Structure prediction request, 253 residues.
Amino acid sequence: MASSAAANIGTSLARLAIAAGIDVVLSNSRGPETLAGTVAELGERARAAAPEEAARAGDWVVVSIPLAAYRELPAAALAGKVVLDTINYYPSRDGRVEVLDSGKTTTSELVQEHLTGAKLVEALNNISDHHIPSLARPAGAADPIALPIAGDDPQAKAGAADLISRLGSDTVDAGPLAEGWRFEPETDPYAVPYSAAPDAMRAFWTQVSEALRSGTAPQTPPPVDGGVPLPAARLRTLLADTSRKLTADRVVA
Ligand SMILES: NC(=O)c1ccc[n+]([C@@H]2O[C@H](COP(=O)([O-])OP(=O)(O)OC[C@H]3O[C@@H](n4cnc5c(N)ncnc54)[C@H](OP(=O)(O)O)[C@@H]3O)[C@@H](O)[C@H]2O)c1
Prediction:
Protein backbone atom coordinates (compact mmCIF):
# COMPACT_ATOMS: atom_id res chain seq x y z
CA MET A 1 0.00 0.00 0.00
CA ALA A 2 1.29 3.47 -0.77
CA SER A 3 0.10 6.44 1.23
CA SER A 4 0.49 9.86 -0.31
CA ALA A 5 0.58 11.83 2.89
CA ALA A 6 1.97 10.54 6.08
CA ALA A 7 0.18 12.55 8.72
CA ASN A 8 -3.02 11.96 10.77
CA ILE A 9 -4.96 9.66 8.45
CA GLY A 10 -1.99 8.37 6.45
CA THR A 11 -0.08 7.21 9.52
CA SER A 12 -3.14 5.63 11.16
CA LEU A 13 -3.76 3.61 8.01
CA ALA A 14 -0.09 2.70 7.63
CA ARG A 15 -0.02 1.33 11.17
CA LEU A 16 -3.08 -0.85 10.53
CA ALA A 17 -1.74 -2.02 7.16
CA ILE A 18 1.55 -3.10 8.70
CA ALA A 19 -0.30 -4.95 11.47
CA ALA A 20 -2.14 -6.77 8.65
CA GLY A 21 1.17 -7.78 7.02
CA ILE A 22 1.03 -5.22 4.19
CA ASP A 23 4.18 -3.32 3.16
CA VAL A 24 3.74 0.45 3.14
CA VAL A 25 5.43 3.28 1.22
CA LEU A 26 4.80 6.72 2.71
CA SER A 27 5.24 10.09 1.05
CA ASN A 28 4.60 13.73 1.79
CA SER A 29 5.33 17.13 0.26
CA ARG A 30 8.57 17.83 2.12
CA GLY A 31 10.56 14.78 1.03
CA PRO A 32 11.16 11.21 2.24
CA GLU A 33 13.97 12.25 4.59
CA THR A 34 11.42 14.12 6.75
CA LEU A 35 9.60 10.82 7.31
CA ALA A 36 12.59 9.00 8.83
CA GLY A 37 11.15 9.10 12.37
CA THR A 38 7.76 7.77 11.26
CA VAL A 39 9.36 5.01 9.19
CA ALA A 40 11.58 4.00 12.14
CA GLU A 41 8.54 3.87 14.40
CA LEU A 42 6.54 1.80 11.89
CA GLY A 43 9.31 -0.75 11.42
CA GLU A 44 10.75 -2.76 8.58
CA ARG A 45 7.59 -3.07 6.49
CA ALA A 46 7.60 0.74 6.02
CA ARG A 47 9.70 2.98 3.81
CA ALA A 48 9.39 6.51 2.49
CA ALA A 49 9.66 7.75 -1.08
CA ALA A 50 8.79 10.75 -3.22
CA PRO A 51 5.09 10.88 -4.21
CA GLU A 52 5.67 9.58 -7.75
CA GLU A 53 7.72 6.59 -6.57
CA ALA A 54 5.22 5.83 -3.80
CA ALA A 55 2.38 5.99 -6.32
CA ARG A 56 4.12 3.51 -8.64
CA ALA A 57 4.91 1.16 -5.72
CA GLY A 58 1.39 0.60 -4.40
CA ASP A 59 -1.13 -2.09 -5.34
CA TRP A 60 -3.47 0.22 -3.49
CA VAL A 61 -2.69 3.92 -3.14
CA VAL A 62 -4.26 6.11 -0.47
CA VAL A 63 -4.30 9.84 -1.17
CA SER A 64 -4.82 11.76 2.04
CA ILE A 65 -3.79 15.37 1.53
CA PRO A 66 -5.52 18.77 1.74
CA LEU A 67 -7.77 19.32 -1.29
CA ALA A 68 -5.76 22.43 -2.16
CA ALA A 69 -2.88 20.16 -3.24
CA TYR A 70 -4.81 17.65 -5.38
CA ARG A 71 -3.42 18.92 -8.69
CA GLU A 72 0.07 17.99 -7.45
CA LEU A 73 -0.85 14.28 -7.24
CA PRO A 74 1.22 12.36 -9.85
CA ALA A 75 -1.48 11.49 -12.40
CA ALA A 76 0.75 9.50 -14.78
CA ALA A 77 2.14 7.32 -12.00
CA LEU A 78 -1.36 6.65 -10.68
CA ALA A 79 -2.87 5.63 -14.03
CA GLY A 80 -4.44 2.15 -13.73
CA LYS A 81 -4.14 2.13 -9.93
CA VAL A 82 -6.89 1.68 -7.35
CA VAL A 83 -6.71 4.99 -5.48
CA LEU A 84 -8.51 5.43 -2.16
CA ASP A 85 -9.30 9.11 -1.71
CA THR A 86 -9.83 10.40 1.85
CA ILE A 87 -9.83 14.08 0.85
CA ASN A 88 -12.47 16.44 2.23
CA TYR A 89 -13.08 20.05 1.26
CA TYR A 90 -12.69 22.89 3.76
CA PRO A 91 -12.76 26.30 2.05
CA SER A 92 -11.11 27.86 5.11
CA ARG A 93 -8.12 25.56 4.50
CA ASP A 94 -8.31 24.82 0.76
CA GLY A 95 -9.65 28.08 -0.73
CA ARG A 96 -13.01 28.38 -2.48
CA VAL A 97 -13.92 25.83 -5.18
CA GLU A 98 -17.11 27.03 -6.89
CA VAL A 99 -18.12 23.64 -8.34
CA LEU A 100 -18.05 22.18 -4.83
CA ASP A 101 -19.76 25.14 -3.13
CA SER A 102 -22.58 24.89 -5.68
CA GLY A 103 -22.86 21.09 -5.49
CA LYS A 104 -22.15 20.70 -9.22
CA THR A 105 -19.65 17.99 -8.40
CA THR A 106 -18.20 16.07 -5.46
CA THR A 107 -14.72 16.25 -4.02
CA SER A 108 -13.74 12.84 -5.35
CA GLU A 109 -15.11 13.57 -8.83
CA LEU A 110 -12.84 16.61 -8.89
CA VAL A 111 -9.82 14.53 -7.85
CA GLN A 112 -10.77 11.83 -10.43
CA GLU A 113 -10.84 14.51 -13.18
CA HIS A 114 -7.20 15.24 -12.40
CA LEU A 115 -6.20 11.58 -11.97
CA THR A 116 -7.18 10.53 -15.50
CA GLY A 117 -6.69 6.78 -15.78
CA ALA A 118 -6.70 6.09 -12.05
CA LYS A 119 -9.62 4.16 -10.57
CA LEU A 120 -10.70 6.41 -7.75
CA VAL A 121 -12.68 5.24 -4.75
CA GLU A 122 -13.88 7.75 -2.16
CA ALA A 123 -13.17 6.07 1.17
CA LEU A 124 -12.11 6.60 4.78
CA ASN A 125 -13.12 10.28 4.69
CA ASN A 126 -16.16 10.12 7.00
CA ILE A 127 -14.38 8.98 10.14
CA SER A 128 -12.07 10.80 12.55
CA ASP A 129 -8.47 9.70 12.35
CA HIS A 130 -8.38 8.41 15.94
CA HIS A 131 -11.46 6.21 15.35
CA ILE A 132 -9.83 4.37 12.43
CA PRO A 133 -7.53 2.33 14.73
CA SER A 134 -9.79 2.25 17.78
CA LEU A 135 -12.73 0.81 15.80
CA ALA A 136 -10.74 -1.68 13.70
CA ARG A 137 -11.94 -5.23 14.31
CA PRO A 138 -10.64 -8.67 13.29
CA ALA A 139 -12.61 -10.37 10.47
CA GLY A 140 -15.76 -12.02 11.81
CA ALA A 141 -15.96 -9.84 14.97
CA ALA A 142 -19.39 -9.61 16.61
CA ASP A 143 -19.40 -5.80 16.51
CA PRO A 144 -18.01 -4.81 13.09
CA ILE A 145 -17.76 -1.22 11.93
CA ALA A 146 -18.93 -0.30 8.43
CA LEU A 147 -17.47 2.47 6.28
CA PRO A 148 -18.96 3.80 3.04
CA ILE A 149 -17.18 3.71 -0.30
CA ALA A 150 -18.14 5.35 -3.61
CA GLY A 151 -16.62 4.84 -7.03
CA ASP A 152 -17.31 4.43 -10.74
CA ASP A 153 -15.32 1.21 -11.26
CA PRO A 154 -16.82 -1.91 -9.62
CA GLN A 155 -13.50 -3.78 -9.60
CA ALA A 156 -11.76 -0.84 -7.95
CA LYS A 157 -14.49 -0.70 -5.32
CA ALA A 158 -14.01 -4.41 -4.67
CA GLY A 159 -10.26 -3.81 -4.35
CA ALA A 160 -10.81 -0.92 -1.93
CA ALA A 161 -13.26 -3.02 0.09
CA ASP A 162 -10.63 -5.78 0.26
CA LEU A 163 -8.01 -3.37 1.65
CA ILE A 164 -10.43 -1.82 4.14
CA SER A 165 -11.49 -5.27 5.29
CA ARG A 166 -7.83 -6.19 5.91
CA LEU A 167 -7.53 -2.97 7.93
CA GLY A 168 -10.45 -4.04 10.13
CA SER A 169 -13.69 -2.57 8.74
CA ASP A 170 -16.61 -3.65 6.60
CA THR A 171 -17.79 -1.47 3.72
CA VAL A 172 -21.11 -0.31 2.30
CA ASP A 173 -21.29 0.66 -1.36
CA ALA A 174 -22.78 4.17 -1.56
CA GLY A 175 -22.83 4.18 -5.38
CA PRO A 176 -20.78 6.07 -7.98
CA LEU A 177 -18.48 9.02 -7.24
CA ALA A 178 -21.39 11.38 -7.98
CA GLU A 179 -23.11 10.00 -4.85
CA GLY A 180 -20.03 10.61 -2.70
CA TRP A 181 -21.66 13.76 -1.25
CA ARG A 182 -23.68 11.35 0.92
CA PHE A 183 -20.73 11.00 3.28
CA GLU A 184 -18.94 14.30 2.87
CA PRO A 185 -18.52 16.52 5.98
CA GLU A 186 -21.54 17.03 8.22
CA THR A 187 -23.86 14.63 6.41
CA ASP A 188 -25.60 12.05 8.61
CA PRO A 189 -22.93 9.34 8.14
CA TYR A 190 -20.08 11.77 8.82
CA ALA A 191 -17.94 11.18 11.96
CA VAL A 192 -20.70 11.57 14.58
CA PRO A 193 -22.20 8.02 14.28
CA TYR A 194 -18.76 6.57 15.08
CA SER A 195 -18.29 8.76 18.15
CA ALA A 196 -18.94 7.76 21.76
CA ALA A 197 -19.24 11.48 22.56
CA PRO A 198 -21.35 12.94 19.72
CA ASP A 199 -22.35 16.06 21.64
CA ALA A 200 -18.70 16.83 22.38
CA MET A 201 -17.88 16.35 18.71
CA ARG A 202 -20.64 18.75 17.58
CA ALA A 203 -19.57 21.24 20.27
CA PHE A 204 -16.02 21.05 18.92
CA TRP A 205 -17.24 21.83 15.39
CA THR A 206 -19.07 24.89 16.74
CA GLN A 207 -15.92 25.99 18.50
CA VAL A 208 -13.85 25.55 15.32
CA SER A 209 -16.44 27.55 13.39
CA GLU A 210 -16.30 30.40 15.92
CA ALA A 211 -12.49 30.31 15.88
CA LEU A 212 -12.48 30.51 12.07
CA ARG A 213 -14.86 33.48 12.16
CA SER A 214 -12.75 35.33 14.72
CA GLY A 215 -9.38 34.29 13.23
CA THR A 216 -8.27 32.59 16.47
CA ALA A 217 -7.24 29.03 17.29
CA PRO A 218 -9.79 26.63 18.88
CA GLN A 219 -9.38 26.72 22.69
CA THR A 220 -9.83 22.98 23.35
CA PRO A 221 -8.52 20.02 21.35
CA PRO A 222 -10.95 17.71 19.49
CA PRO A 223 -12.64 15.12 21.72
CA VAL A 224 -10.92 11.74 21.60
CA ASP A 225 -12.82 8.61 22.59
CA GLY A 226 -12.77 4.92 21.68
CA GLY A 227 -15.68 5.27 19.27
CA VAL A 228 -18.77 3.11 18.76
CA PRO A 229 -19.19 0.45 16.07
CA LEU A 230 -21.58 1.35 13.27
CA PRO A 231 -23.35 -1.69 11.75
CA ALA A 232 -23.72 -1.83 7.96
CA ALA A 233 -27.54 -1.76 8.09
CA ARG A 234 -27.51 1.49 10.11
CA LEU A 235 -24.94 3.02 7.76
CA ARG A 236 -27.14 2.14 4.73
CA THR A 237 -30.05 3.98 6.36
CA LEU A 238 -27.91 7.03 7.15
CA LEU A 239 -26.61 7.11 3.55
CA ALA A 240 -30.11 6.80 2.09
CA ASP A 241 -31.74 9.39 4.35
CA THR A 242 -29.09 12.10 4.54
CA SER A 243 -29.58 15.43 2.84
CA ARG A 244 -26.75 17.09 0.96
CA LYS A 245 -24.61 19.51 2.98
CA LEU A 246 -23.26 22.21 0.74
CA THR A 247 -20.53 24.32 2.28
CA ALA A 248 -23.05 27.10 3.00
CA ASP A 249 -25.07 24.64 5.15
CA ARG A 250 -22.11 23.46 7.19
CA VAL A 251 -21.02 24.50 10.69
CA VAL A 252 -17.33 24.18 9.71
CA ALA A 253 -16.48 25.18 6.17
N1 LIG B 1 -7.91 14.05 10.24
C1 LIG B 1 -9.13 13.52 10.13
O1 LIG B 1 -9.74 13.11 11.12
C2 LIG B 1 -9.77 13.41 8.75
C3 LIG B 1 -10.95 12.68 8.64
C4 LIG B 1 -11.52 12.49 7.36
C5 LIG B 1 -10.93 13.05 6.24
N2 LIG B 1 -9.80 13.80 6.39
C6 LIG B 1 -9.23 14.41 5.17
O2 LIG B 1 -8.10 13.62 4.79
C7 LIG B 1 -7.08 14.47 4.27
C8 LIG B 1 -5.83 14.34 5.14
O3 LIG B 1 -6.16 14.68 6.47
P1 LIG B 1 -5.07 14.67 7.64
O4 LIG B 1 -5.80 15.09 8.86
O5 LIG B 1 -4.31 13.38 7.63
O6 LIG B 1 -4.14 15.86 7.14
P2 LIG B 1 -2.75 16.36 7.70
O7 LIG B 1 -2.47 15.74 9.02
O8 LIG B 1 -2.73 17.85 7.54
O9 LIG B 1 -1.72 15.75 6.64
C9 LIG B 1 -1.68 16.16 5.34
C10 LIG B 1 -0.55 15.42 4.69
O10 LIG B 1 -0.59 15.75 3.30
C11 LIG B 1 0.76 15.91 2.87
N3 LIG B 1 0.78 16.67 1.65
C12 LIG B 1 0.37 17.94 1.45
N4 LIG B 1 0.55 18.28 0.15
C13 LIG B 1 1.07 17.19 -0.46
C14 LIG B 1 1.49 16.92 -1.79
N5 LIG B 1 1.36 17.84 -2.75
N6 LIG B 1 2.00 15.70 -2.07
C15 LIG B 1 2.14 14.75 -1.09
N7 LIG B 1 1.76 14.96 0.19
C16 LIG B 1 1.25 16.16 0.49
C17 LIG B 1 1.42 16.59 4.04
O11 LIG B 1 2.80 16.49 3.93
P3 LIG B 1 3.72 17.72 4.41
O12 LIG B 1 3.48 17.85 5.87
O13 LIG B 1 5.11 17.30 4.03
O14 LIG B 1 3.23 18.93 3.62
C18 LIG B 1 0.85 15.77 5.18
O15 LIG B 1 1.59 14.57 5.34
C19 LIG B 1 -7.66 15.89 4.27
O16 LIG B 1 -8.23 16.18 3.03
C20 LIG B 1 -8.73 15.82 5.36
O17 LIG B 1 -9.75 16.80 5.18
C21 LIG B 1 -9.20 13.98 7.61
